[in-house]
């Protein structure tokens, strides 16, 4: 009788192998989607090149404390990759798996649907981080944008921003029953999130009241935190706290509302 039952350690080993297999399979599928890779990793840097090609963006701006607009826009294009990853790329994949019954069928195998969610978040997070490194490198080499002076603070702020962006994507996946719905919800949330990140006007240059409101949103707080770390200061605990609060809140909402079938 005992020989027919798997021990907890055996089940754990089997689950770990299944999770690794899911991650490997999802990575292969992810790399076969050049459209997603382009929008997450290439488009934000291309946007930075466009901004940097405008002469006025390379001149010091008194409203930004002597910074150039191109300096202020590096965090913005980094956040653009996070928003694209969380709102546009990841939700259609997860809702598509649910819509086609793939997640339901996984529940009868050693592979659990949670493994797919974890793999998707890891892959999209890694792509967004790669895009951030590319934007920093191009900004430095092409437009002499200084690298972050407070590297540790920058990494902490970026990690919290990635967490908030992916949690937001998980919420979109949770409330959307179909791929079409997730595309519509993601598109509706995209422009407000990009405005709060400072795409049309850097958060530092916004009127005082508007700027304070934007700093209460995840990407507005992320833009300020990344800007502070880039200037050599430790990011404000207020901005880091807002980011952490949004990440925890959105994760809780996604966990509460997410359905595997």
TrEMBL record:
Alphabetical list of PROSITE patterns matching this protein: ABC_TM2
Chief localisation class: membrane
Compartments, as annotated in UniProt: Cell membrane; Membrane
Database matches in InterPro entries: ABC-2_transporter, ABC2_TM, ABC2_TM_bact-type, ABC_2_transport
BP GO terms, sorted: response to antibiotic
Similarity comment: family membership: Belongs to the ABC-2 integral membrane protein family.
Protein name: Transport permease protein
Organism (species): Streptomyces boluensis
């Amino acid at each position: 009788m005992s020989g027919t039952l798997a021990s907890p350690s055996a089940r754990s080993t089997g689950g770990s192998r299944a999770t690794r297999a899911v991650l490997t399979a999802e990575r292969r599928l992810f790399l076969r989607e050049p459209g997603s890779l382009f929008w997450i990793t290439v488009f934000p840097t291309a946007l930075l090149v466009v901004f940097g090609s405008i002469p006025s963006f390379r001149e010091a701006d008194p409203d930004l404390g002597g910074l150039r607009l191109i300096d202020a826009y590096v965090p913005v294009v980094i956040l653009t990759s996070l928003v694209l990853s969380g709102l546009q790329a990841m939700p259609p994949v997860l809702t598509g798996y649910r819509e086609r019954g793939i997640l339901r069928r996984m529940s009868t195998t050693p592979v659990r649907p949670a493994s797919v969610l974890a793999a998707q978040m890891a892959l999209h997070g890694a792509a967004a981080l790669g895009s951030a490194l590319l934007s920093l490198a191009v900004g430095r080499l092409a437009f002499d944008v200084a690298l972050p002076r407070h590297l540790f603070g920058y990494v902490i702020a970026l990690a919290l921003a990635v967490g908030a962006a992916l949690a937001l994507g998980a919420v979109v996946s949770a409330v959307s029953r179909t791929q079409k719905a997730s595309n519509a919800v993601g598109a509706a949330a995209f422009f407000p999130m990009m405005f709060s990140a400072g795409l049309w006007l850097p958060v530092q240059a916004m009127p005082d009241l508007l700027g304070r409101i934007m700093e209460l949103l995840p990407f507005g707080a992320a833009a300020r935190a990344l800007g502070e770390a880039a200037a050599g200061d430790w990011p404000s605990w207020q901005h880091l706290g807002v980011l952490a609060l949004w990440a925890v809140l959105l994760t809780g909402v996604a966990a509460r509302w997410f359905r595997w079938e």
